[in-house]
Specification:
The structure holds two protein chains of two kinds. Chain A is mainly β. Chain A has a single domain, classed as RNA polymerase II/Efflux pump adaptor protein, barrel-sandwich hybrid domain (OB fold (Dihydrolipoamide Acetyltransferase, E2P)). Chain A is about 0% helix and about 45% strand. The model of chain A has no long low-confidence stretch (mean pLDDT about 95). Chain B has an eight-stranded antiparallel beta sheet with strand order 13-12-9-10-11-14-21-19, with helices on both faces. The longest helix of chain B has 19 residues. Chain B is about 35% helix and about 30% strand. In chain B, helix 4 links the parallel strand 4 and strand 5. The C terminus of chain B is likely disordered. By secondary structure, chain B is an alpha+beta fold. Chain B has three domains: about 100 residues, Rossmann fold (3-Layer(aba) Sandwich); about 70 residues, Dna Ligase, domain 1 (2-Layer Sandwich), CATH 3.30.1490.20; about 250 residues, D-amino Acid Aminotransferase, Chain A, domain 1 (2-Layer Sandwich), CATH 3.30.470.20. The chains are: A mainly beta, B alpha+beta. Chains A and B meet through loops of A and strand 16 of B.
């Protein structure tokens, strides 16, 4: 079993769901496919969707909802 | 009332602007900042700076408790809210006053009244200001909506009473669409704003956005003439001018007088802007909304009138009566403002934060650059993309455009993409030179003219 890291391509604010009152895209332990959205990054008031980019049996988030992230920071890990 | 010190409850270029005005009046300045803004220019310029929370706006610049706490700690006399953030939050204005401080702006009640779209429309109608044909306030049923459209015709906008800033709007072209969309719009408004209230407004196609700057001291109100802000992208202003040069003079007079009448009817206190749509063909203007704060584009008004609007805000807040009479407010020449954003106009206006590697600012007669940039500054990703505003004045509009083109050639910001190439192309465009534009002009122009040469032609200096 290997671990794949999902990194933020941009600096900004990380969101786990598409809007404040809807459930998160993924929760810890969920399986993911490559094109699944796992979160949004807000950069200067615009939003960019972050996709898993890899398929795996289980995702684990390392950044909380609404937390600031740096470009290149690991947002989540996927166990393959 | 004493006003010897002020807390600047904002960031970016407007915080710098407020500090400069305060300094000119001998007022001590205290700047609040988030953890992401410790290096910003306003922090360096202010007499004192206080950190108020983490980067996220709602935990810092939108946190009423944290801002009030900082104001008490700094022992200031007043709070200036700038634009955006808490500037149009009536509860914040009340909290400032409850803390025994002066809020630099209108009362909380005035902010709430004029901030409610339906209530503001009623205020305008009572003051004799023409409003966009539509429903009398909120409508409760589809039948009522259909009867309104018999009077207004189509297309109409279904708007959420609690919406704003371009959100909560649907356009319908006939009765059939209205029947389908009305219930959806109501449900959506309830979900988005916690208020399902709707009202209808006729769509004014090919309209200009014209707005009037007002100043009031609670008794007297004057206007500082109008601004032309039709060049917009996604309902955000990109380029603004003063005056609105193609407006017939009798229309200009009626428009400015109506803004004064509206402000006077509510005993307006502070600087404010009354926004209108103007239809070139019918020569009719219609009230849209009132902004109860200083606006981003206020410098174009300052350039043509010689009035420092931010200094006036301080004087009014200190309890002084208006220092200027209407007859003394004269228009001289023409001014244009270009909003310089950290966005790439060739890649869908994608914003990008980053480090300013080099900054060359044009100087000279009639040129002003309001900014928070300095070489080595790292722009944080948590706030809007406005880097600065290039404002240029000329004896007339043609002279202004020539000077603007030259100033844009000399303005250089390295390190992040900017909208400078877009403004160079606009300043060189024959349709812009003629003034032949309306609120939908820019989006079409971007897809045709600008896309055709990729904006590159304007870059060949």
């Amino acid at each position: 079993m290997s671990k794949h890291e999902i990194r933020s391509p941009l600096p900004g604010t990380f969101y786990r769901s598409s809007a404040p009152d809807v459930p998160p895209f993924k929760t810890d332990g969920d399986p993911v496919s490559s094109s699944d959205a796992i979160g949004l990054i807000e950069v200067m008031k615009t939003f960019q969707e972050i996709q898993a980019g890899v398929a795996g049996g289980s995702i684990r988030f390392l950044v909380d909802n609404e937390e600031p992230v740096m470009a290149g920071q690991v947002i989540a890990e996927v166990e393959q | 009332m004493k006003l010897r010190s002020v807390l600047v409850a904002n960031r970016g270029e407007i915080a710098v602007r407020i500090i400069r005005a305060a300094r000119a009046l001998g007022i001590r300045t205290v700047q609040v900042y988030s953890a992401a803004d410790a290096d910003m220019l306003a922090v360096k310029l202010a007499d004192e700076a206080i950190e108020i929370g983490p980067p996220a706006p709602k935990k810092s610049y939108l946190n009423i408790e944290a801002v009030i706490e900082a104001a008490k700690r700094a022992n200031v006399d007043a709070v200036h809210p700038g634009y955006g953030f808490l500037s149009e939050n009536g509860d914040f204005a009340d909290a400032v006053v409850a803390a025994g401080l002066i809020f630099i702006g209108p009362s909380g009640d005035a902010i709430r009244l004029l901030g409610d779209k339906v209530a503001a429309r009623t205020v305008a109608e009572k003051a004799g200001v023409p409003t966009v044909p539509g429903s009398d306030g909120r409508i409760s049923s589809l039948a009522e909506a259909l009867s309104v459209t018999e009077r207004t015709g189509y297309p109409v906008m279904i708007k959420a009473a609690a919406g704003g800033g371009g959100r909560g709007i649907r356009i319908v072209n006939d009765a059939c669409e209205l029947e389908t969309q009305f219930p959806q719009a109501s449900a959506e408004a309830l979900a988005s704003f916690g208020d399902g209230g709707l009202y209808l407004e006729k769509v004014i196609t090919r309209a200009r956005h014209v707005e009037v700057q007002i100043l009031g001291d609670g008794k007297n109100v004057v206007h500082c003439h109008e601004r032309e802000c039709s060049l917009q992208r996604r309902r955000q202003k990109v380029w603004e001018e003063a005056p609105s040069f193609l407006l017939p003079s009798e229309v200009r007079q009626k428009l400015c007088d109506s803004a004064v009448a509206l402000a006077r009817s509510v005993g307006y206190r502070g600087a404010g802007t009354v926004e209108y749509l103007y239809d070139d063909e019918t020569r009719e203007f219609y009230f849209i909304e009132v902004n109860t704060r200083i606006q981003v584009e206020h410098p174009v008004t300052e350039m043509i009138t010689g009035i420092d609007l931010v200094e006036e805000m301080f004087r009014i807040a200190a309890g002084a009566p208006l220092s200027i009479r209407q007859a003394d407010i004269k228009v001289r020449g023409h001014a244009i403002e270009c909003r310089i954003n950290a966005e790439d106009p060739r890649r869908g206006f994608m914003p990008a934060p980053g480090k300013i590697e080099r900054l060359d600012v044009p100087e000279g007669e009639g040129i002003r650059f309001d900014t928070m940039l300095y070489e080595g500054y790292v722009i944080p990703p948590f706030y809007d993309s406005l880097l600065g505003k290039l404002i240029v004045w000329g004896e007339d509009r043609a002279a202004c455009l020539v000077r603007l083109s030259q100033a844009l050639e000399r303005l250089r910001i390295d390190g992040v993409p900017t909208t400078i190439p877009l403004h160079r192309a606009l300043a060189a465009d024959p349709q812009i030179a003629k003034g032949a534009f309306h609120t939908r002009f820019l989006e079409t122009w971007l897809e045709t003219e600008f896309a055709a040469d990729g904006g590159r032609a304007a870059e060949v200096a």
